[in-house]
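New to this. Explain these tokens.
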Amino acid sequence: MKASFEADYESVELWKLLITGDRSAFKTLYDQYVQVLYNYGRRYTRDDALIEDAIHDVFCHLWKSHKALSVPVSVRFYLYACVRRVLHKKLRQVEIMLNNRLSAENHFESGGQATIEEQLVLQEEQLQIKSKLRVLWRQLSDNQRKAMYLKFVRKKTAAEISEEMGLGREAVYKMIQRAVKEMRGGVLSFFTFWL
């Protein structure tokens, strides 16, 4: 408990220096809290890029508005609240954008008429997504690509993939899971970039 109190006291002192525009205090606060905030962000999402963006946004905002800051009772809990708020906002934006895309695609597929501009925007977005997926695909290892191809294109079972690749089933499961996670994270960070 004593160590926690001392850490809070030290953070408050650094915060006071930050308010005066002290860059080294800002850097020290960042270094002290970046991993703690990253771990905290993992409670809300597994998208590493989204968490990193949220932390970056929080610290950019702190530096830009350092003169207007007041001293919080607990720097840690203040930063937790900031990261949580930014993450929720980013996750809502991604969800809204994906819902809008799905409803637009459903509208077009059900025979609804789209303006030329809407069609061009949708085509451009689809080209950008395909391009991003190609980049993400190339970033996977050869084994990950092969396992993904066998699973999702050839529709093979884990046992069949395991036999064909000469790997254990557990290794195949982990490889596919990791590849899907990497692809999903890349796509989500791409969407948040364009919001």
